[in-house]
Structure formats: C-alpha cells, structure tokens
Amino acid sequence: MPTGSCLCKNLQYEYTGEGHVIICHCLPCRRLSGSAFSTNILLPRSSFHLTSGTPKTISRPGDSGLDVTLNFCPECGHTIFVTGEGAGLRGSVVVKAGTLDDPELLDKLIPAEEIYTEHKVSWMQTERKVKRPGENSGPMGAVLAATLMLLG
Ligand SMILES: [Zn+2]
Ligand SMILES: [Zn+2]
Asked: Pfam families in the record, alphabetically (predicted)?
C-alpha cells in the first residue's frame, strides 16, 4: 500500500488503489510547489487515510467559486494533500505525488493528464496526451475541471 509523508514526517498517510495522476501547470501550483508544475494523485477520499498527525488547513475559492483546501503540516508547513467542495473535488483527495515515501513508486505512476498547459514552461518537453478543462464530458472531466487552479 503506498505511503507518504510531509518533510518532517509529522503527517503520514496511506492509500489504496491506483489513483489518477495529473500534472498541473497552473500558476498557483507553481507557487505552492516552488517549481514549474505540480504532480498530483487524484484519489477517492475513502481510499486515503492519515496515519499520523493532524493537518492545518487553509481554504480559498477555486475556479468553481467553491473552497479549495490545502492540508499542510503545522510543524514544517508542507502541503501534502488538497481537498475541495467543488463538484469534482467533493469526495476526492488530491495527493501531492512528491510526498510518496517510495522514491521508485513515482517513476511507475505515469501521468494520465496534463492540465493548464497554457502555463506550461517552454523548456518542459513531454509527449503526454493533453486534455483541457471541459474536453471531458464524463465524471473524470468534472473532477479535472474542479481540480484545476487548485489554489485559484
Ligand atoms: Zn511536517
Ligand atoms: Zn494546479
């Protein structure tokens, strides 16, 4: 079962299942990650369990106008997952993929989607299939659309 933790290991989690891996190029993710993009694992909330620590949270409206909540360690400040009240995020957890404990696991988690590619830095080359908000009409599309601009 995959496990993960914040930088200081005060917060620890585990989850079941595969998840849906999404690279996000939105500007808030850039700021949050301190990097050019974020890598996220979208999971049903029921398959994600904190095994140590209690996160602090901060909420702000996402693109939907409904709250997106960052869950971060009160000790080290590291955001390890995101939840939200928008239609697609409700019932889901977005785990920051770099928090996985097994460094080899991330190598096996091939991203299924890239979003907010209009903000993708020019030097980042990938050949992933790109989907944009609204292109999907099914449930995953709704999830993606609500996941976008996590901090919007
Ligand atoms: Zn911590
Ligand atoms: Zn983002």
From this structure: GFA
Domain boundaries, the chain: 3-147
**pTM, rounded to two decimals:** 0.82
* Ligand of minimum distance to the alpha carbon of 52: 1
Architecture of the domain delimited by 3-147:
Alpha-Beta Complex (3.90)
Distance 130 CA to ligand 1 centre (A): 33
Q: Tokens for 95?
A: 């785990």
Interval 102-152: pLDDT, tens: 999 988 998 999 999 999 999 987 665 555 555 544 445 445 544 554 443
The CA 105 to ligand 1 mean position distance, Å, reads 21
- Which residues does residue 48 pair with via DSSP β-bridges, in sequence order? 15
Q: Which of 32, 19, 21 is nearest to 62 (CA)?
A: 32
Residue 9 neighbours by CB under 8 Å, 6+ apart: 52
